[in-house]
Amino acid sequence: MMGGNNVYSPPDQSLSPNSNLCITIEEVSQSSEQLVVDGDDDLPIVGDNPPDDLHDCDGLLDEFPAQSNGSEKCSLASPPPATGMEFDSYDDAYSYYNSYARDLGFAIRVKSSWTKRNSKEKRGAVLCCNCEGFKTLKEPNSTRRKETRIGCQAMIRLRLIELDRWKVDEVKLEHNHSFDPERAHNSKSHKKACGDGDGGAAKRKPEPPLDVQVRTIKLYRTTAIDSNGETSDDHLHSSKRLDLRGGGGFRVLQDFFFQSQLTNPNFFYSMDLGDDGGLRNVFWIESRARAAYSHFSDVVVFDTTCLSNAYELPLVAFVGINHHGDPILLGCGLVADQTPETYVWLFRAWLTCVSGRPPLTFVTEHCKSIQTAVSEVFPRAHHRLSLSHVLQCIVGVQDSESFRMALNTVVYGYLKVEEFEVAWEEMIIRFGLTNDETIRGLFQDREQWAPVYLKDTFLAGALTFRLENAAAPFIFSSYVHQHTSLREFLEGYESFLDKKYTNEALCDLESSKSIPELKTTHPYESQMAKVLTKEIFTRLQEEVVATSSCSGVTQVHSSNGSASSSYVVKEREGEKVRDFEVVYETNAAAGVRCFCICGGFSFNGYQCRHVLLLLSHKGLEEIPSQYILQRWRKDVKRLYIADFGSGCVDVMNPVQWYEHLHRRAMQVVEQGMRSKEHCRVAWEAFKECVNRVTEKSS
């Protein structure tokens, strides 16, 4: 938690999201496990931060191919193989793939396997469709094989990752032939329950594919805790499936992911499968959102409006706040239930695709399951509760005009903790709420939502809701309502994002081109008009104008031998005058630092009227630079293109060649879209590059 003498620092701009990453996660019960990233002995790693080294892997669409019966129910009793699946032994992996093949109607064999050097211990294997390859003249009985070996590419590649634990790290599902269940049933692989059919180790290890570098993330589902505090694993066997029967079902979701990956190179999604293969939870995030998180990772709101209001669509969203103070989408999910295990999975999936870097402040509704998950996945983040949700819960207990007025005064009217707690106690006694469990529970968690406790927590304007308008803005409110189906939501999703992106671009243009109208002659107002975006300047302008209602700057304390002093600034609010204490410090290294008891800078991201008046009283003609946050500046060029890792490129890894070149090219494209002249320069540069590369290769 930030101390009273700390100045907020904006997020590190050097950290950025990963490349396209799609994973299927098999969860196992653990009481307390951290995110584990399994390395790959066959693939080079550059950099020493595991989350930043994640790379592309095959999309989940391939893992759930369209079934011939056209069923749209999410029933995966025999799920197809997926990159990242793990098995306790090689025999288990072989048996699984053999069973899958038998159900589908084809036979399998071991194409190759390899052992550890100077050892007979098996380290990896490739299991393929029996129709793989072609007949050769050297093969005995080649006539008999003429009709079976027709070059089918379907296969899985297995690798030993731990002692007796095997992982699928490559999958090809497409067959070039029709299935023959009767013939497959009589094949050698299906006549035995399990066997390796190895025929000896392979002479060489197959090369990893050039178009994909696999990094599989294992997410552990925490052990459930029952009402008596005892642990239980029953939830692993009785976990709910995600209900997608309405509005097109799983096929609509599958098509959405497929189309998104075609048009969005760094699109990320993940599916949580149960032990029975059923779909439990889904998460996805756009590439632009992953890049935007590098600019706005300081405050993230976890929006569960659909769950709290019993919408038919079990939608949740990760929401950030951009440089115009507008909400931006940083990820979406569909959940089967509201258990701690579900939220742990969801938070870990989200954390994975944002470089493993949690937000500075994470705001959620008041929910014990969410609180448990946050403490496990984001232990260092400042977990705060949505004030709007808390106020709605309180008003739901007693909704009367007199109670609303009293609650508003208690929540917003006190600057000191002692005053707030005394006023709260008097309020609940007055309205007979002493024994109400909801009120009691919220008061126990008061340090996570009451403004008087949050003055050291940066919130970027996320705590500006008043009781008269307690409902927090729902990011999808423009087209998602209580009866919106999955199909309707996905059909409007792209249009929703386009409108958000267009609105941000228009705000950028207006901020950079327009000259704000000044309301005072104060130098702070003209200074901020040049650097802040229009909306944020308008908010700060209100503080500058409000300095006229403040007066009587009086020094009340000065530390001997220290450059720290305390002042009281008086502000008139109607007929009432309130005192606000402001601490003023000077330091050779940090310069001027100010802290107001109102907590305005932490709440809003810009200084309050009381500090502005004191700075002016001290003779400062400009607001110190440390109080002009980069997240609000209009002169910062925010290119929403993912920039991964440290920039190191493994010269032996074609995957990293591609990612590096694509990254740099897209940055040129973004710059080229700024104007007609920029576009011309970018086009000429591209033509020159193509000519030089062509000459080099000829």
UniProtKB/TrEMBL annotation:
It holds the Pfam family MULE. It comes from the Eukaryota. Residues 178-208 are annotated as: Disordered. The keyword Transmembrane does not apply. InterPro entries: FAR1_DNA_bnd_dom, FHY3/FAR1, MULE_transposase_dom, Znf_PMZ, Znf_SWIM. Keywords: Metal-binding, Nucleus, Zinc, Zinc-finger. Its main location: nucleus. It is found in: Nucleus. Residues 580-619 form the SWIM-type domain. The keyword Coiled coil does not apply. Belongs to the FHY3/FAR1 family. Putative transcription activator involved in regulating light control of development. This is Protein FAR1-RELATED SEQUENCE.
